[in-house]
Amino acid sequence: MEALLSLAFDNIASKDTQKIRKGLRQIEGMLAQICLSNGKSSKPSTPGHRRNASAINLGEQPPSSPKKLGALSEDLAFREFFRLQEGFEWNVATRVADCLERLLGMASNGQNDLLILSALSNLQGLLLLHPPSRTIFGREIYMNLVLDLLDPYNCPAIQSSAVLVLVTALLGTPQNTRTFENMDGLLTVTSLFKDDETTQGVKLKLLEFLYFYLMPESPVPAATGLQRSPSKLVNAFDRRSSTVHGDDTGCTSTKNIRTQEEKQHWLSKYLSNVEALVQDLQETAPFTSVTC
């Protein structure tokens, strides 16, 4: 897996759009092989078939069904992927975010927009597969990257994908939400929502984000390290690791937590009738299994 990641990292670090596309597809292929099953058996379907090779040649793979979360704990590729993400050298989310920053600095055209969409799709998957990687968005440089993608000049597809990445980056990480607030993230979101040029599809996703933002927060328990045993690996999804950004505290202090009333007050600075959103949220409970 290190060899595949090294090759993908070299490609997405290039200024050549063809190499960037290839690198993003290699990462996408690796994630697909981790998340998808080719059948009841995890054994190779053809002689000489190797996971790394199939990740590079994603287009040659037969249709697959998603694996259940419990099955991932027994998957050697997933265990290895999770282990590698603990260190900065092999953390894929950081590399893809850096690639995304370079893409934003390149000429704006249809081809570049497709690369940005591919990078955003990969980033969302990475943050879901390895929740501790979300801690990078506690840093202003990475949070600002997502907020830049919500500018009106970006196409609706990029705006919608950026909203999904933002939700994933804030999920279960109150410290990231504080960074988002401190960087005028609410102003960015509400300005785009109120813009007459914003499409209805993007406005719907922004409204869903506001519901998500208004969810009550709870402290994240401290984690002394990710569990390695198969029976406990899935539980690591609910833990936060600090190794990605070098913080050795491994926990979220309650001082980072804001009440729903406090967040309602913050949002009301930029949007009217927030009380109606809160009431609707309490009545419908659309995210009953989600903790912000």
From TrEMBL:
Q: Which GO terms describe its biological process?
A: cell division
Instruction: Please give the residue ranges the record annotates as the region Disordered.
Output: 38-68
Which keywords belong to this entry?
Answer: Cell cycle, Cell division
Protein name, entry field: Cell division control protein 14
Protein's organism: Aaosphaeria arxii CBS 175.79
